């Protein structure tokens, strides 16, 4: 299964490209005095729907952008390395559905920033690793929860009024749903032994038959051998067979007459 984990240029290129895009948008904002905030998500308004696509690329200040950049670099690299086949889908659908959910449940204010996507990546990597039960992905899940587990507090209201807890909650829910929906059969354990097969029946296993219901070792019952007329039945046929017993004559030469 380790063949699925390959280091490619995309492991570094994808996170760098995404984060540099965020910095480029922020540079345009301060260089030309653009106000992109109004392009964010404004819940339950038609114009606010544009923020579903644009809001992850908009940040209010340098500190906001910096705080989002580091987790994005780490989580995007982990996603691309361990789930390369799903990375683009998780990013694309993560932005889309977390944005729509924020638009539905958010306060009447502009919601901007890539933190919603961060929560999508965090939830997807954590829950997917636990679901696969593959030791490397479980270790990745534990690493992610150790590094960013404190983020879970910011999905609750009134922890920090300045942040969009609705966007965080929407991202967390979206990441969990994507982890459930996207199957990863390549990480399933391949059965090596007969008892790991789904159709395994212990009652038919000769080894398991050597133990009783209490787990005590017992001898196998002797197989009955069918006999008839004092002879073993070695011949098996659907046709009726009649045996005739012929006495053996003494093999002696007869005298000539």
Automatic annotation (TrEMBL):
Family annotation (InterPro entries): Peptidase_S54_rhomboid_dom (IPR022764), Rhomboid-like_sf (IPR035952)
Major subcellular location class: membrane
GO molecular function per UniProt: serine-type endopeptidase activity
Any single GO BP term: proteolysis
Keyword list, A-Z: Hydrolase, Membrane, Protease, Transmembrane, Transmembrane helix
Residue span, Peptidase S54 rhomboid domain: 52-181
Localisation per UniProt entry: Membrane
The family this protein is said to belong to: Belongs to the peptidase S54 family.
Protein name: Rhomboid family intramembrane serine protease
Species lineage: Bacteria, Pseudomonadati, Bacteroidota, Flavobacteriia, Flavobacteriales
